[in-house]
Structures are given as C-alpha cells and as structure tokens.
Design a protein that fits this description.
Elements lengths: L4 H13 L1 H17 L8 H8 L4 H7 L6 E6 L14 H11 L3 E7 L5 H4 L8 H16 L6 E5 L5 H11 L5 E3 L11 H12 L5 H11 L11 H11 L15 H16 L10 H4 L2 H14 L5 H11 L6 H10 L14 H6 L2 H11 L8 E2 L2 E2 L7 E4 L5 E4 L24 E6 L2 E6 L9 E9 L2 H9 L7 E5 L4 H4 L8 H9 L4 E5 L11 E7 L16 E5 L4 E4 L3 H6 L20 H6 L13
Parallel strand pairs: 1-2, 1-3, 3-4, 11-12, 12-13, 13-14
Antiparallel strand pairs: 5-6, 7-8, 9-10, 10-14, 11-15, 15-16
Helix pairs in contact: 1-16, 5-12, 7-8, 8-15, 9-10, 9-21, 11-14
Length: 606
C-alpha cells in the first residue's frame, strides 16, 4: 500500500530527528526485555509479599514463570461518571484471566480528576500536572516487577496520556488499554451550549442551567461530546492499543463486558511466555505516532493532544514537533462531524460507522501506515473492523458498512467535510501558538481588532456582565501557561465570547493557556509560547494594540512598530494567590521544572 507523500515525508523526518533518542530508549527496553519480570529471580520473601493476598491456586501459579500475570492499573473512582464503570472491571479481568490459564492482580490505582468539575475553579490548575502524577503512580504500581503484561483502565483527559507515559516507561511488557465507553445520549450538546449562553446573558437562572447540565451529563460513562476524553479513545485505536472498535460501546452492556474479557485474553496471549510477544515499546514507534496524529486531524479531535502526543512520543524516544502536527493537518481531510464540530455526539458517530469506518477510509487513501504492529497483530487493517456480540456471548468482528450510516456525521475520503484537519500552528511576532478552526465559521478565520488584556478569565466574565465588551476585540488572556498557573483549560469565558460573536462582533482569543476539544466557535491562538511568565512577547501587549489572527496563512501578530514593541518591558503579574490553596502549593516544583507547551509541558524531564 502506497503511503501519501506528505505522510511519508513527515514520517521520514520524524524517524531521522528521533534516531539517537529512540535508539537510547530501545536499548534500555531491550535490556529490560532480556532481564524480564522473572518472578523466580525474586527472593522468597519478595515473592511471598507479592502474592500474599492471592488464593491458593494463584499462589501456586505465580510461584514460577510458566503462568502469565497481568497487572491492572486502574483509574477507578465513583465520583466521576467516566471512571465509575471500572469498579467491576478487575473482577471481570481476574475471572477472564483464570479461564484462560492466567492470573491478574490490581497493581495500583492512579488519580483521575475531571476538568468538567474543575472548569473555572482553582483545582483546574492541577489538571495538566495530574498527567505527570498519573505517569508516576503507574510507575509505582508496576515497580514490583511481578507482571508479564499490564491492562490500563482509564478514559479521560490527562488519565490516558499519563497512563501512556507510564506504560512506555515499562515498555518491555505488553500494554492493553481498556475503555469503559460513553454514557447514553442525553440532552443534545448544541442545546446545552444554548442554555449556557442564555445563562451568560442573564436570560435564565441557575436552576435551569443545572437542569440542562444534569440532563446532558446524566449517567455512568464518558461525556458524549468529542473532547479530550473521547479523543483519547480514538488515539488508542489508531495507535493499536485497543481491541478493534472498542472505544464507544456503552458501559454495562453485554458487548462491553465481552470486550473486556477479550482484552484480558489478548493481554495474556501477547506476553513473553507465548508465541506473539508484543511489548508496548514495539507498538508505539514513529509510524504509530504519525497514525495517532492523522486520527486526531481526521476526526477533529482535541487540541489538548497537541501537547499530550508530544509528551507521549518523547516517553518513547520520539521527537514529535508542532510543525509535524501542522503539516499532517494540511494533508488529512476531516471525515467526522461530532460536537463541537457538528451536532452529533459520539454515540451517533459510532452508529454511523465510527472509528472502523474512518480507519478504513484513511488506509484506502494511503493516509495511515498500515505496516505497524498492534496488540491485535501485524497491520492496522485489522482495526478497520467493528465488534458485535456473537451467538455464544463473545465478540465477533466484521467489516464496517460500505457507506456511512449517516453522511452528515461520517464522510467518505472522496467527499470530506473539509480538505484539512483544521488544526494549524501559528507563528508571528507573538511567538508560536496553535489554532483549531474546524468549528469556526470561514468568515471568522481572519480577525483583526484591538487587544483587551486580561490576567484572569473571571475578568472577562465580569467585563461582559458590565457591558464593557460590546465591540470588536481580541481578548489577550495571559499568565495562564505551565509555569504561571499549570496551564488550566479556559472555558469559563467561552459562553460570553460566543454571545458577543452572535451579536455580530468580531471576537478572538490569544492565550498561553489551554482550551480543548470543546473550544468551540471562537477563533483563537492557544498554547502561546514563550509564555508570559517567561517574558514572552504576549507579556508586552497593551490594551488597544491591534492584533491580527489569520488562520488561513498561519500567522498571528501584534501590529505595533517593531522597535517600539521590542523596547517595552514585559508586564508582571502577582501569581502568589494562584499558587496556593486546593493543593496548588504541592505543585511548586512542577511549575518550576515544566517544559514549554510545544515540548509537551512535562515536569518529568521527557
């Protein structure tokens, strides 16, 4: 199968750029593979501690190296809808492992926080750093060296990237990621967004707003819009770490349970004790990373993955850059319309053909690398299948339909919704940033307007309520970057900006903070680096400066005479109040050591 020229070119330069770092990584992994998790090498005391809580049969099995042992790393908690279904998964996995002649133990738990709960709150400033905490917790759980494979139970925003970084650190053992699935469809996402705007305008009260939110987020399972959580699931399929078509099967259904059993049996089949040894370090290579980026563009996924994919790749010795991501976006058509890039939710998307259909379409056009290794075997083509429940209650796979189930949600490659993925890297005299325009109307792809500078998103909301923003402007929200505040997502001011745009004003946003897959219809330049806390150009913008964002050319600039702008002193911001309370004081070392957004915003030295 011939690979598209742009895909091949970006892949080749990624391989060349990563050559030394990847070789160092694989040398470490190969040494660990050779050493292996040989339980008989543990002292009797070590081993006795490792299986003290097991039943007699499992103790006997784990006394040698003949029976494979799965380590379960779980993000279960029962406060968050996406992770509550994982409560029963360990027992299911243990039963399936025993049936297949293996053993499974819960190796450890990792934290799982929800950006939906912390939006606009102090806790959001821990969110991005929680990814690194999750990676560390994964490492602690697997450090006992008792496991031949690991199964990872996680869904949402930072959880899957953190689990991935941890898994790649233990790249010598296989990794199988197990989704729990989205909640059934509730109040349509576009109706929820309208209610939020009505509340922002003061047209309805809190009771009506809460009723709408509760009708949208209403039961166990992942939120149904296509934000970071569901983009995570897409990545795991495109990168070969899910069973084919597993992402969007609802929790608590017979098919969901059957997929969990099948994932367990597959994890046992690919350990070093069998004939299909597939350590995760050999699944996640440069081609797999490229496939993940292509999937992000083709489905209109979350901008958070511009950060997460860079960090994940670095954990595997792969040096992905924003230019790689941008160049791939220009070559990959948009084949999905899922909210906020359309009216459908992920349940509708799955019913219309979903990820198996998209993978098949992209493969047919040479837009994905087929010649990769996945947990299912050799070649990505096997992932262009959708799971069904067989007569015996187990999973069977079949080809997706030849045509989309709904052509307004899923498109053929020959008739895409847009010729590109809609995500671009912006450069200019303000540094480097990212924009996503798949949900932005074409007449808003270029905005030129005076700047209004803010240092807190609450200031934008207050200015809107006071009637001070009824005009064309570019909101410059700075001191939100990794070193300043841990780079929180900034959604509190999205409804007011949406209202202003609906009133006919030309509005845009420039920030060194984050948005997400739910960033919506406002043109923006996000992840701006260098950030304001490092004295970046964004810190020299003043109220009234004209700013031009041009998503068509990939530029964002402040239109101030060059010498005048260079002479300005960067603004300062007292961030002390934002660096204590609700746990933020614990993360001072993370803020001090974090890399830039373009380097993955990692405090782990990746």
């Amino acid at each position: 199968m011939t690979v598209d020229k742009t895909i091949a070119k970006v892949t080749d330069r990624l391989i060349e750029r990563s050559r030394d770092a990847r070789a160092d990584y694989m040398e470490r992994i190969d040494a660990q593979i050779e050493a292996g998790p040989h339980r008989t090498a543990l002292s009797c005391s070590n081993l006795a501690h490792g299986f003290a809580a097991c039943g007699a049969g499992d103790k006997q099995a784990l006394a040698g190296d003949v029976v494979a042992n799965i380590g379960i790393v779980t993000a279960y908690n029962d406060m968050l809808s996406a992770h509550q279904p994982y409560q029963g998964f360990p027992d299911q996995i243990k039963a399936a492992a025993a049936e297949a002649g293996g053993v499974a133990q819960v190796a450890g738990g990792v934290p799982a926080m929800c950006d939906g709960v912390t939006q606009g709150q102090p806790g959001m400033e821990l969110s991005l750093f929680s990814r690194d905490v999750i990676a560390l917790a994964t490492g602690v759980g697997l450090s006992h060296n008792m496991f031949d494979a690991a199964m990872y139970l996680g869904i949402c925003d930072k959880i899957v990237p953190g689990l991935m970084i941890g898994a790649l650190t233990f790249g010598h053992i296989p990794a199988v990621f197990v989704p729990a699935g989205p909640m059934p469809s509730g109040l349509p996402n576009d109706e929820k967004a309208k209610v939020r705007q009505q509340y922002a305008e003061g047209k309805i009260g809190r009771d009506e707003l809460l009723a709408a939110e509760s009708a949208s987020y209403h039961s166990p399972g992942t939120c149904t819009f296509y934000g970071t959580a569901n983009s995570n699931q897409m990545l795991m399929e495109f990168m070969g770490l899910h069973l084919p078509g597993a992402s969007f099967i609802n929790p608590g259904t017979p098919l969901r349970d059957a997929l969990t059993r099948a994932a367990t049996k597959r994890a046992l089949a690919i350990t070093a004790l069998g004939n299909e040894f597939t350590p995760v370090a050999r699944v996640i290579d440069e081609k797999a990373v490229i496939n993940g980026v292509v999937g992000l563009h083709a489905t209109g996924g979350s901008t958070n993955h511009v950060i997460h994919l860079v960090a994940i790749a670095r954990a595997a010795g792969i040096r992905l850059t924003l230019d790689d991501i941008s160049d791939l976006s220009a070559a990959v058509p948009l084949l999905a319309r899922v909210y906020p890039n359309g009216l459908a939710d992920v349940n509708h998307f799955h019913a219309a053909g979903g990820l198996p259909f998209i993978i098949r379409e992209l493969l047919s056009g040479g837009l994905l690398h087929e010649d990769v290794k996945t947990i299912w075997g050799d070649g990505l083509s096997a992932h262009a299948q959708e799971p069904k429940l067989g007569a015996d209650g187990e999973v069977v796979w079949q080809a997706p339909p030849a045509e989309p189930g709904n052509a307004k949600i899923v498109a053929r490659r020959a008739e895409p919704f847009a010729p590109t993925g809609g995500l671009k890297v912006l450069t200019g005299n303000l540094g480097e940033g990212v924009t996503k325009v798949s949900a932005v109307k074409p007449d808003r792809h270029v905005i030129e307007a005076p700047a209004i500078v803010f240092h807190d998103q609450g200031e934008i909301v207050d200015a809107f309520k006071a009637g001070k923003l009824d005009r064309d402007f570019v909101a410059v929200l700075r001191f939100q970057g990794p070193k300043a505040r841990g780079m929180p997502e900034l959604h509190k001011m999205v409804p007011p900006l949406g209202v202003l745009q609906d009133r006919g004003h030309r509005v845009a946003l420039v920030t060194d903070g984050r948005m997400s897959g739910a960033s919506g219809k406002i043109l923006n330049a996000i992840h701006v680096t260098p950030e304001a806390a490092e004295g970046g150009p964004i810190a020299r913008i003043r109220d009234g400066d004209t700013i031009r964002l041009d998503a068509t050319t990939g530029r964002f600039d402040v239109l101030v005479e060059e010498t005048t702008f260079a002479r300005r002193r960067p603004a300062k911001c007292d961030l002390s109040a934002a660096q204590a309370g609700i746990g933020r004081e614990l993360f001072g070392p993370f803020r001090a050591g974090v890399t830039s957004a373009s380097e993955g915003a990692s405090a782990l030295g990746l």
